[in-house]
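Our consortium's second objective concerns turning raw sequence data into structural hypotheses that experimental partners can test. To show how far this objective has progressed, the report includes one record in full. It was chosen at random from the queue rather than selected for favorable results. The single chain below, 221 residues long, was entered without modification.
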Amino acid sequence: MPPVKKFIMLGMGTFGSALATKLAANGCQVTGVDQRRERLDLLKNVLHEAVIGDSTDREVLENLPIRDATAVFISLGETISQSLLATLHVRELGARNVIVKGVTKEHGKILEHLGVDRVVFPEEEVARELADRMTWPNVLDYLPIDPEYSVAEVAMPSSLSGKSLAEANLRSRIGIHIMGIKDVMRGKFEMFPDGKTRLLEDQVLLVVGREKEIAALREMP
């Protein structure tokens, strides 16, 4: 059985609480830190440990298992100075993975210079995802894996139905790589299909490619 992943959440506002709740539901242990007892009380059935304290106070942070945590999340509202100070402390205390909620683009740039592993802007990310889902309803899921490439699940374009994978020739035509094909009706999934595989309307393609290449696939009739 794999070891339980342990996370530290500095700031238990809306974002921190939602993230902690999901991590706990995934079987992880979360230590939550906040100055407001009422926030921690609301999560007493979620948090493995609740610490009432100032996330910018180095002495408070020194008493947390920061070096042993899988990641430290920092979400301190709109107060940029507190976010930066907490980030500086946890980096100096040996955090392996630091993920911070950004407030502004400038805040994000400073955090990157401090060496954080990721800056997240939840509202922007949700807005982009929602806009993409509403614009291209045939894109069922979308996961960026680096600055250029993403993995996406795309409903089979009608124009490809009945063709073999070789006949569709998507790699040469638009640069898309087919990693797998899911047959929705039969509940079957074929990983790395060969060129003889027949494409059908009730299938979903698992593809990897650049944004423009995925866009070309999802815009096919």
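The partners drew two points from this record. The CA atoms of residues 67 and 104 lie 28 Å apart. The domain at 6-123 is CATH 3.40.50.720 (Rossmann fold). Both points have been shared with the crystallography group to help prioritize constructs.
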